[in-house]
Amino acid sequence: MKAVFGLYLVLFLTACASSNRDTFTLAVIPDTQNYVDYSKQKNEGFVIDASELFIQQMQYIADNSVANDGPIAFVASVGDVWQHQSLKIDPEHEARGILAVANPILDRMLSVSEKTRSIEIPKAVQGYQLLADAGVPFGVAPGNHDHDAMWTSHEFPPDLTKSIREISMTAEDLGILHVGGLNNFRSVFGDDKPFFKDQPWYVASFNGGANSAQKFIAGGYEFLHITLEMQASDEVVAWAESVLAANPGLPTIFTTHDYLSVSGEREPNPIVDLARVDPQNHNSNEQMWQKLYSQHDQILFVLCGHQHGQSHRVDPNVNGEPVYQILADYQDRGQVGLVAGQPINRFTRKPEAIGDGWFRLMEFDLDQNSPRVVVKTYSPYFAKYSSEEPNYAAWYKVYEHPDLSDAEFLQTDDFVLELDNFHQRFAAARLP
Predict the structure, then answer these.
(1) Does residue 155 fall inside a structural domain?
(2) Distance CA 260, CA 143 (A)
């Protein structure tokens, strides 16, 4: 059996290696929860089927994959694949004596529903099946919404003495959410499920596939991609380090759900701060940098979503090599629904959040003299890059980065990263 798998892997890598030697594209799928949200479909009274934007997005990626003579060699999903939970609290946390308390403001957005399994998850499967059918390798990190349960911790309850107008986006006012259970996630993205079972590019997993590793060949190099649970535990960090040790020298991309804020800091959304509510089982985003991402020379990128907006930063690791950290999350965008006649959300006073089809395309050009990555943002719905849409800043800047000029806002979704010292740093991963 091992010999057959090894032969299959060799054939797969050989096929991948036949692609362009210097250039390829990595697609990054931001939070898709609002697309598949059962309440944002026509049969629930929404003006459009938001899920059509999701399917359109995935079809575009499949159509432009290497297997279809396109440039996309790999797909990284930052999580929050679906919206709702199926449990009020999971058995493991309940057994630990952790309790859920009522949260009048957040509970309306976090209602438990049987439609999670009957509508949202099947729609997600439909989208990812397009990638599977196209033969493009991918990895998916679980987000907080992908957990079986999400509730307000009894140790960090909301302040019920304040009116809605007095409430701020703080833990003290809104409380802190906790998450638990990944059975729903594993039912789709588990290491023994059809998307990944026996795939030669799926090389390692932990916690049943809640954390996973993949390899792909592109640009004349072999790459390693690792997905992690958000604000991961020390146990998960140790597993990730074991995967790095088993694959030394490969340029490595980490994808996790929560890592950067919209201001580019390694800090959580204050009301989803797992390291604060459960420090024995979660590391903060800064701790993840200190314990893992900054400690290994082969870690090149850290990708994330979760926090509504975009940012990026570059920091040296312990040996002075650059680590490129990038946030992209477009889930709050609602121009498509607004134009179709969907009313403004009365609670948020914004267009109803769906996402408008935007996602990231990271175009690698590993030219020998000046290797770089051109980061672009594209929507199949508009059939445009962000830089090509004249209304882009007018539509989105006020909700995401009101402090920036229009030109500065456009640059958050269209920029270039110079991969300093790439060829010397990853010489061992260069294919003959």
Answers:
(1) no
(2) 14
Distance CA 426, CA 18 (A): 20
Helix axes 121-134, 51-63, angle to 10 degrees: 10
- Decide if 93 is inside a domain: no
- Single pTM value for the model: 0.94
CA separation for the pair 409, 416 (Å, rounded): 15
What's the total number of domains in the chain? 1
CB 359 within 8 A of CB 305: no
CATH of the domain at 56: 3.60.21.10
Q: 148-169 burial by CB neighbour count: b if 16+ within 10 A, else e?
A: bbbbbbeebbbeeeeeeeeeee
Structural domain span for residue 303: 2-82+113-144+180-429
Query: pLDDT value at position 165?
Result: 78
| Cα(359)–Cα(376) distance, integer angstroms | 8
Strands 299-304 and 202-206: unpaired
What beta strand segments (E) does 348-425 contain? 359-365, 372-379, 384-385, 415-418
The residues, any chain, with a CB within 8 Å of residue 396's CB and separated by 6 or more, are 333, 335, 409
Assess contact for 78 and 30: CB atoms under 8 A: yes
Which pLDDT tens digit goes with each residue over 221-276? 999 999 999 999 999 999 999 999 999 999 999 999 999 999 999 999 999 999 99
- The mean predicted confidence, pLDDT, of the chain is 93
Tokens of 216: 């792909």
